[in-house]
Design goal:
The chain is built from eight helices and 19 strands. By secondary structure, it is an alpha+beta fold. The strands form three sheets. Strands 3, 4, 5, 6, 7, 8, 9, 10, 11, 12, 14, 17 and 19 form a 13-stranded mixed β-sheet that branches. It has a four-stranded antiparallel β-sheet with strand order 16-15-13-18, with no helix packed on it. The chain has a two-stranded antiparallel sheet with strand order 1-2. It is globular.
Amino acid sequence: MARRAAFEIDGRQIAAGTRETVELPISVLSDHTPIALSVHVVHGARPGPTVFVSAAVHGDEIIGVEVIRRLLRSPALQHLAGTLMCVPVVNAFGFISHQRYLPDRRDLNRSFPGSANGSLAAQLAHKFLTQIVARCEVGIDLHSASIHRVNLPQIRVAPDAGRPLELGLAFGAPIVLLSELRDGSLRAAARELGVDMLLYEAGEGLRFDELAIRAGVAGILRVLRELRMTPRRHTPVSRHQSSVSRSSVWVRAPAGGILRAYRTIGDSVAEGEVIACVSDPFGEKDAEVCSRAGGLIIGRANLPVVNQGDALFHIARVASPQHAEDGVEKIAVALQSDPLLDEDEIL
């Protein structure tokens, strides 16, 4: 059988059955330090799909960086069919400064498809889209909540998605949320190119969360297996089918004050249930916070100091909230005990 052709990127030839990190030049800092878009390419010996995994599109959402680091150490990639492109830090500017945005104060995830001669955000979006995304059939973009907030591990796909929904269910997160595409987002730009996209949300900005990291690594390996890119023996088994949510609601602070939350991510709630209280610093006035819908809490605020109108809880509507809550516990137990996800077993 003829040897598979090399994978070409930025003038570099990566032979089949090898892997290499390639630096795509982006810009220089004001002190002339070069900034690059670093991509690690694993080019399998056998043919198969081309998939990208990206993180830190928002510079303060660092959990995906650790997910990719662990993914690249997985023995499953030694038997890869197809090509995997991993970009652990898309927004290097924000990552270095611990900031969500770029130096031009633009949100990279509202700057796609970008342009070669536009703003810094537009140029970075254009480079990432043309050099990485456009060459793939499937993409997985890793995110977290912003600072002072936390998200339950979840997958988001477009409401009319066929194959992405199938891949999202294969990922094995507690929740698959059908989420509308936003103009300027990576997901919307990928859709225009015919690339099937999954968005993984988990954890908190500027923080690591072990369960969220393990869920991310396990989910990506399951998707690669679903695409027949990796062997079954290196794939963590999913112990619970994801709940699908077709809509979600936000519960906001009725007043400014000190938040005391009675529920957290992964908890099921009933419509009208008291899930928190906002008090003044003297304890003279209490304002109850009630759930606007029955469902599963998939995000919440961690900062106790709140202003009126602040988003406190994100609740996904699901067919059976208690079943979804039970699934969160089962998934957590399985992830904590799976030897395939132990750092000592990765090498």
